[in-house]
Amino acid sequence: MKSRCLNPKMHNYKYYGGKGVKICDRWLNSFNNFLEDMGEAPPGCSLDKDIKGHGLLYSKETCCWASKSAQMFARNFPGALTHDGRTQSISAWEREMGVPVGYRVRSGWSTADAITKPKGYRPKSAT
């Protein structure tokens, strides 16, 4: 996160710091604050930032831990998901619901099931 935003020599700086993406003051100089807000990264996950709304700031409100597949799906998915009259990015739904919405949708789940079914739920296979 810091390299992307602060180091012009990094290969991906042009997509982050070069486009004005910043790190919130709470995290900028305190890894302990970052860790308090985000916790340890779950296995197989990396920091994901919501690109809509507050897309120019890394903060507790705009970040979550997500798998590479969920991040790639969100990056390539045209638009956001709408459920129950609300439209949000996949990352925002994942943060709110605590389930891998992007992975579920990519795997063929309906939007409603992908968003609302609890962690560990497995859809019944068609017979």
Binned, the helix content reads 25-40%
Biggest sheet layout: 2 strands, parallel
Strand adjacency order, main sheet: 1-3
* Tally of separate helices: 7
Shape: elongated
Structural descriptors:
single chain, 127 residues, alpha+beta, two-stranded parallel sheet, two-stranded antiparallel sheet, 7 helices, 6 strands
Structural overview:
With 127 residues, this protein is an alpha+beta fold. It has one domain (2-116). Helices cover 36% and strands 16% of the residues. It has helices spanning 2-6, 25-28, 31-38, 68-76, 90-97, 101-106, 111-116; strands spanning 22-23, 45-49, 57-58, 63-67, 81-83, 86-88. The strands form three sheets. A two-stranded parallel ribbon has the order 1-3. The protein has a two-stranded antiparallel ribbon with strand order 2-4. It has a two-stranded antiparallel sheet with strand order 5-6. The longest helix is centred in the middle third of the chain and has 9 residues, at 68-76. The model has no long low-confidence stretch (mean pLDDT 84).
